[in-house]
UniProtKB/TrEMBL annotation, chain A:
CDD domains registered for this protein in UniProt: epsilon_tubulin
All copies of domain Tubulin/FtsZ 2-layer sandwich, residue ranges: 278-413
Gene name tied to this protein: TUBE1
Cellular component aspect of the GO annotation: microtubule
Protein's UniProt name: Tubulin epsilon 1
Automatic annotation (TrEMBL), chain B:
Keyword Nucleus: yes
Domain of life, source organism: Eukaryota
Protein name: Tubulin delta chain
Compartments where found: Cell projection, Cilium; Cytoplasm, Cytoskeleton, Microtubule organizing center, Centrosome, Centriole; Nucleus
Family named by the database record: Belongs to the tubulin family.
Assigned GO CC terms: centriole; cilium; microtubule; nucleus
Parts of the chain that traverse the membrane: none
Source species: Fundulus heteroclitus (Killifish)
Main location as per UniProt: other
Length: 474, 390
């Protein structure tokens, strides 16, 4: 079995990452009844025996001694990482996995990417190498960062290039948090567009997530749980928000949102970790969902929503779960995939679901979903037998769909509004190594990307005939 | 006569385990001594403690499925896989035929050949090999094709019968049509025969004939195993003089080419009836000797240039199979697969026309020329089958 390493960069990246580790531990604790360090656990955790002199890594098969996350935590401020080290997850990380500074990046991509990127290049590479060395067979790096700030966006994308340089054969999956239009960081469009170019050029897959979608989903869950019968029991051990386990107003608002993203990561790796009748490994995701190298933005949707919260709502019909996966309310970016064009779609199902359920739903939903002419049956499916904690089944859909185009176009508009007036540009150009050409190149890169999606969209209305077949001499 | 099975990838290993299970359970009935002992000799070997171990080599690029299959086998109490007969790696082929065929297959060639050699050495008389695989994924299809090539190289005079599972038409894997085209084009040159099960057809059997409401891959695999075992279990051939002496893989799959003649038209649905080149009918159980099989010799179902008496093979076994009082199995070399094959090629060709996903294959050493060669190969097969006429 393979291992993955999570690299969390910046405030947002570390908060989400933290939630992921919490959920992963709970999920494995629930499934792993005998306290043995098994292959599934080893995919994300090392088992360390602190008494051993050689640094302590134990092999698969023995008892769990001390689990350490396969992670590298990077932040140019100390607040979030220190919070993690004082919280319940402190045992799961050790100091060699952390890289912090004190002054932050000032919401400036150039500071993150160029200043800190150069200053800490060697340190970062060393920590990544260390993490990789602890792995038997490293399959994937999961990079988590926001797009709108300075550290996550700037340093995060620098780390992405380093990953490509140092580990070219290891898959790079980036979970990128995009700011909403009402983001209070004025320069977030600059940071996002500068980072986008890096993602387009250096990532294998990007899972874009919009803050606003997360807010909407959290509100939906809240409405659902208040609408539930009185006396509903709040589930004790399901994969949930931090410790408190309720959606009370005293809870930190971002916890619930970060939870959703953490669940995304949990579900995307479930088939690689656990058994099932149709496995879907991480390297199969890029293979099946990326038809052209740059078009690797995959829109995630998670259903049922109540698996993302602690509430005890009776299981709705299985088929409803499939329908929901395609509804715009469940997408993690604000987009309606049904109104755009599907290039490819993956369905990762967990729990007690059989291939006939899968087939029935694909046949039922297919007529309402526009697929590109050369991929009319573009479905990649996976069945994992282990459901998320406390629930009988769940579904993660990853869509390579042109519905990302409006999101990117909006981003470009917000960028252009600022760039036209050269607003705040000097903050960036003052940074050593930063040039205006980087701005214009990033803008071009984004425009080209939008154009590629646009070309595909244009084929949507047209009836494309079958390509003429080779004719064979008789 | 013994058969060595090579189970490749998730599908090959899942179906293979079900196959050995059916065979072992069918052979268990003590009253049918000759049948049982021939069947056991064919598919199992006995350890010094009297346990039955499958004559199988299990190959996969990741370990989960092999572990699962080996555990399930051991749980049956009747048989198991030998401890050292499997090969797996840590990371799968990523549904990439090029990765399986050009990189992983060659990388692990020695290890796999060694496992096969050891199994062959345990056979008194080797009937041949059955590689079992799906055509849709990366390991079964890519590594499986490479392993088939190796078997051909190392054992040039042995039969190689590939059991292939074709995926549901509406995807399990998005690049399944590419993987299938590449596999079939290569296997056509390498293999003696390709025995095909389509998931769609097996699914229909489960829902319409077996009336299963919820169908799992396990259900599909058990139907496939049952049908495949129905072909491979001992049967009496017309010339075997009452003994199960025939090579179970030695079906006369060779079909003579048609005499040159003018004015042949081709059609994918030749009058709505699939013309047959050759058929093998296997009857098992009660009344096999009195069964009326004349219908299978009707010239109307055969292509015109082959006399039905030569085109039809009839095997019988008075021993009931898999608890069915009477059963019949038909293995047909006919136009039945023409439509599915044509659909597969059409979809793959449309995708190729836009060059979608090609970069993923080029990365591992399969070029656009390689694709074109495979397409050409299969168009020829389609053309040949389409020209058959009753």
């Amino acid at each position: 079995m393979t291992q993955s390493v999570v690299v969390q960069v910046g405030q947002c990246g570390n908060q989400v990452g933290c939630r992921f580790w919490d959920l992963a531990l709970r999920e494995h604790a629930h499934v792993n009844k005998r306290g043995l360090y098994d292959e599934a656990l080893s995919s994300f955790f090392r088992n360390v025996d602190l008494r051993k002199s050689d640094g302590g890594d134990c092999c698969v098969g023995g008892r769990i001694q001390h689990l350490k996350a396969r992670a590298v935590l990077i932040d140019m401020e100390e607040g979030v990482v220190n919070g993690i080290l004082q919280g319940p997850l402190r045992e799961v990380f050790d100091s060699t996995q952390l890289l912090t500074d004190v002054s932050g990046s000032g919401n400036n991509w150039a500071v993150g990417h160029l200043t800190y990127g150069s200053a800490y290049r060697e340190a970062i590479v060393n920590k990544l190498r260390k993490a990789a060395e602890h792995c038997d067979c490293l399959q994937c790096f999961f990079l988590i960062h926001s797009m709108g700030g300075g550290t996550g966006s700037g340093l995060g994308t620098r780390v992405l290039s380093l990953l490509e340089e140092e580990f070219p054969d290891v898959c790079r999956i980036v979970t990128a948090m995009y700011p909403s239009a009402e983001d209070d960081v004025i320069t977030s469009p600059y940071n996002s567009v500068l980072a986008m170019r890096e993602l387009t050029e250096h990532a294998d897959c990007v899972l874009p997530v919009e803050n606003q979608s997360l807010v909407d989903i959290v509100n939906k869950i809240s409405v659902m749980s208040h609408g539930a019968k009185p006396g509903s029991v709040l589930r004790k051990d399901s994969t949930v928000t931090s410790g408190q386990g309720s959606l009370s107003p005293t809870e930190k608002p971002f916890d619930a949102m970060n939870n959703i993203v953490a669940n995304l990561l949990l579900n995307i790796t479930s088939s690689a970790r656990f058994e099932g009748s149709l496995n879907m490994d991480l390297n199969e995701i890029a293979m099946n969902l990326v038809p052209f190298p740059r078009l690797h933005y995959l829109v995630p949707s998670l259903t049922p929503l109540y698996t993302l919260a602690d509430v005890n709502i009776p299981t709705r019909r299985l088929d409803q779960m499939f329908s929901d996966a395609f509804s715009k309310d469940h997408q993690l970016i604000r987009a309606d995939p049904k109104r755009s064009l599907y290039l490819a779609c993956a369905l990762m199902v967990r729990g007690n679901v059989q291939v006939s359920d899968l087939r029935r739903n694909i046949e039922r939903l297919r007529p309402s979903l526009p697929f590109v002419s050369w991929n009319q049956e573009g479905w990649k499916t996976g069945l994992c037998s282990v459901p998320p904690v406390g629930h009988s089944h769940s579904l993660l859909a990853l869509a390579n769909n042109t519905c990302v185009k409006p999101t990117f176009m909006e981003l470009r508009d917000r960028f252009t509004k600022l760039y036209r007036k050269k607003a705040h540009l000097h903050h960036y150009l003052d940074v050593d190594g930063m040039e205006q050409s980087i701005f214009s190149e990033s803008l071009s890169s984004l425009s080209e990307l939008i154009d590629e999606y646009h070309q595909l969209d244009a084929t949507k209305a047209r009836l494309i005939p079958d390509a003429p077949r080779l004719s064979i001499a008789r | 006569m013994s058969v060595v099975t090579v189970q490749l990838g998730q599908c090959g290993n899942q179906v293979g385990q079900e196959l050995f299970d059916v065979i072992s359970s069918d052979a268990q009935d003590g009253q049918r001594k000759t049948y049982s002992s021939v069947s056991r000799e064919r598919f199992f070997r006995q350890t010094s403690q009297g346990d039955f171990e499958a004559r199988a080599v299990l190959v996969d690029m990741e370990p989960k499925v092999i572990n699962h299959s080996m555990n399930r086998a051991a749980k049956s109490g009747r048989w198991r896989y030998a401890e050292a007969s499997h090969f797996s790696q840590k990371q799968g082929s990523g549904n990439n035929w090029a990765n399986g065929f050009r990189v992983l297959g060659p990388r692990h060639r020695d290890a796999v050949e060694e496992l096969v050699r050891r199994e062959v050495e345990h056979c008194d008389v080797l009937a041949g090999f059955i590689p079992m695989m799906s055509v849709a994924g990366g390991t079964g299809s890519g590594v499986g094709t490479f392993v088939t090539q190796c078997l051909r190289d190392v054992y040039p005079s042995s039969f190689v019968l590939n059991h292939l599972t074709w995926p549901y038409g509406t995807g399990e894997v998005i690049v399944q049509n590419y993987n299938s085209v590449l596999t079939l084009a290569h296997l056509y040159q390498l293999s003696d025969a390709l025995l095909v099960h389509e998931n769609d057809a097996v699914h229909r059997i489960c829902s319409q004939q077996l009336n299963l409401k919820q169908i799992s891959f396990g259900d599909l695999n058990r139907v496939i195993a049952h049908q495949l075992a129905g072909v491979l279990q001992p049967a009496l051939t017309p010339d075997s003089c009452g003994a199960y002496s025939g090579n179970p893989l030695g079906i006369d799959w060779q079909v003579r080419p048609p005499p040159a003649s003018a004015g042949r038209t081709s059609s994918l649905t030749a009058g709505g009836f699939n013309a047959s080149l050759a058929n093998l009918l296997i009857l098992r159980g009660k009344d096999v000797y009195s069964a009326e099989t004349g219908g299978f010799e009707d010239p109307a179902i055969y292509t015109s240039w082959l006399p039905p008496a030569e085109a039809l093979s009839l095997w019988k076994s008075p021993v009931p199979f898999d608890k069915y009082e009477k059963s019949a199995t038909l293995v047909s070399n006919s136009q039945a697969l023409l439509r599915p094959l044509d659909d597969m090629v059409r979809k793959a060709w449309n995708m190729f026309a836009s060059r979608a996903y090609i970069h993923q294959y080029v990365k591992f050493g399969i070029s656009e020329e390689d694709f074109l060669d495979s397409f050409t190969s299969l168009e020829q097969v389609i053309s040949s089958y389409a020209q058959l006429q009753c």
